[in-house]
């Protein structure tokens, strides 16, 4: 997922003075690999502790999962999923520099089962009708009202598998979310200003 997770882009705009950083894959076939990331404004690295919690939740759902990372940032969540057994991962990222870095990291890992699309999630989702993703990460920029429309598009465009799992990361004050009625909350944790939630589609 995210402002505390996966170097997510809040503004979608590259900063004038980007610095290099890295994220670490913590388990699976790429365990210990460090991937370069663009440390632009609005992009914050995840902590291993948070990522470990998230992927403990996701463990039963990862093997052979077809994944979508809607607001990819550094790609940390998608790469971790791929390392832990996902069959494929598609990244959506608005920030062109961040998207290019994800592409470079795909090449670095020789991960042919991963691909990145540059652009807005809300514009890209309608091009993925009937994609049937098993696992979707939704970790949008905070306070921009993107969760409701993203969730609606996922259902409207028939992009989700029948029993898909959706990981959602939002600001903690969003206690009431307008989500599809067939999304059942199965895990939840609040840490500071961030709420981490896992839903399963029924």
Strands side by side in the biggest sheet: 5-4-3-6-7-9-8
Query: What's the N-to-C terminus distance?
Result: 22 Å
Strand fraction: 25-35%
Whole-number mean pLDDT? 88
Morphology call: globular
Structural overview:
The protein is 24% helix and 31% strand. It has 5 helices and 9 strands. The longest helix has 14 residues, at 96-109. The chain has one domain (19-201): Vaccinia Virus protein VP39 (Rossmann fold, 3-Layer(aba) Sandwich), CATH 3.40.50.150. The chain is of the alpha/beta class and 202 residues long.
Topology:
Elements: E1 19-24, E2 34-39, H1 48-58, E3 66-69, H2 76-83, E4 88-93, H3 96-109, E5 114-118, H4 121-124, E6 133-138, H5 146-156, E7 160-171, E8 183-191, E9 194-201
Q: What can be said about this structure in brief?
A:
This protein is of the alpha/beta class and 202 residues long.
How would you describe this structure in keywords?
Rossmann fold; disordered N terminus; single chain; 5 helices; 7-stranded mixed β-sheet; alpha/beta
